[in-house]
Amino acid sequence: MSHFGAETLRKITVQVIQSRKQKGEKITALTAYDYPSARLVDEAGVDIILVGDSLSSVVLGYENTLSVTLDDMLVFARAVCRGSKKALVVGDMPFGSYHINEERALESAVRYIKEGGVEAVKIEGGRTRALLVERLVENEIPVMGHIGLTPQSLHKMGGYKVQGKTLNSAQNLIDDAVTLEHAGVFSLVLEGIPDEIARLITERVSIPTIGIGAGTYCDGQILVYSDLLGLTFGHQPKFVRKYADLKTTINQALTKYVSDVQSGNFPADTESYHMSMEIVTKLKR
Ligand code: KIV
After folding, report:
1. CB under 6 Å to ligand 1: residues?
2. Confidence class for position 4, pLDDT limits 50, 70, 90
3. Cα angle: 246, vertex 244, 161; to 5 degrees
4. How far apart are CA 227 and CA 236, in angstroms?
5. Gap from CA of 53 to ligand 1 centroid (Å)
6. Global pTM?
7. Fold of 5-244
8. If pLDDT is split at 50, 70 and 90, which confidence band does 1 have?
9. Active-site residue 25, yes or no?
């Protein structure tokens, strides 16, 4: 079997993502966590599916992203890969899977590719991750960077706060972006930073920037699947645009089901299986 068939050519690769910036075409990205969400996102034509560690709270119900483990992420990554045909699938490295030392980080990333089936990994952090990025890239693993409001640094930041608002911190973000580009990331998520800083970074680096709460100038945008669909419980950041209110839709459907069963309205005769009356009559004897 050839590796150069039509199927392979249609797939979105890291190279396709990078060429989008050169062509001035916006990149679309969304998280997905399981087979149905991946299928829907992929079929909508989204370029990048991120198996986000946000699943820690939006799917598993933990308070933040710090609790989810690599073993948890691998289960979801496999389901997402089964559901996506075209999008580039990126696996979010969870907290602890790349912090202890470079060897263990490489081992985690290799497991993600081998066992999870993802095509790239994402790691949070600025220039302190540069050596690790180089190591992963040297070992054939494409890496997406993530700077700004990095949720895994929740305790260090003292909460989910917009980053880069002072001269010093803005300069640090720009330096982080440039250093990560040199280290070899193929794209960079910019989260929770002012529009103007995202613009400066986007103009300064030749890799695509993907924004979330980072304004209009990024080369692409990413949102959390469940936020976009109105399926998240709790606080929504101001940058989230809710394209649907599925929580209400699902709630209405489920409460109707409950009342239909209670009232005897479900199942209807047409929703039941039937057999010949002759047999029924014999069984009654
Ligand atoms: O885990 C996540 O959802 C993310 C965002 C960038 C969307 O990292």
Report:
1. 31, 50, 52-54, 92, 189, 191, 212, 222, 224
2. low
3. 100
4. 7
5. 6
6. 0.94
7. TIM Barrel (3.20.20)
8. very low
9. no
